[in-house]
């Protein structure tokens, strides 16, 4: 268990907010986003449902006074895999998003990668704080 730095706590909370907003947009507006991006509506809606769960769990983790280091590593790993898989989705040709859809996928991959990096920095700062006490 670690005592999270404020930086880690804020990085997790920001991730939860970003993911929660994306979840609501994809669940509620799947048909609109499907027409704007040329991505399948079911894919977008299912992605939204996954993000609902993810946002709730990360948001909960971000409020804890102590955290399991493994839980933070799991969030970092999920974010890293999500970012890589997003780019792989574009490269695979499995789906054919239009230019707006491609831009949306790239932008969210960058955002998720940034969250992973911020959480990693926050975890390192937390480890430093734990050792200092």
Please supply descriptive tags for the structure shown above:
single chain; 133 residues; elongated
Can you walk through the features of this model?
This protein has 133 residues and is an all-alpha fold. The protein contains five helices and no strands. It has helices spanning 6-28, 30-37, 41-61, 69-92, 99-132. The two termini are 14 Å apart.
Principal-axes shape call: elongated
Largest sheet: none
Task: Compute the separation of the termini in Å.
Answer: 14 Å
Tell me what portion of residues adopts beta-strand conformation: under 5%
Topology (SSEs and partners):
Blueprint: H1 6-28, H2 30-37, H3 41-61, H4 69-92, H5 99-132
Helix pairs in contact: 1-3, 1-5, 2-3, 4-5
Compact overview of the structure:
With 133 residues, this protein is an all-alpha fold.
């Amino acid at each position: 268990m670690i005592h999270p730095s404020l930086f880690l706590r804020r990085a997790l909370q920001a991730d939860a907010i970003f993911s929660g907003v994306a979840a609501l947009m994809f669940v509620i507006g799947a048909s609109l986003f499907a027409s704007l991006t040329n991505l399948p509506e079911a894919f977008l809606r299912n992605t939204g449902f996954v993000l609902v769960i993810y946002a709730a769990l990360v948001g909960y983790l971000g409020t804890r006074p102590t955290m399991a280091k493994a839980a933070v590593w799991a969030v970092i790993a999920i974010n890293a895999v999500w970012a890589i898989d997003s780019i792989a989705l574009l490269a695979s040709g499995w789906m054919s998003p239009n230019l707006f859809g491609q831009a949306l996928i790239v932008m969210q991959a960058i955002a998720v990668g940034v969250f992973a990096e911020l959480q990693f920095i926050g975890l390192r700062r937390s480890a430093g704080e734990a050792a200092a006490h």
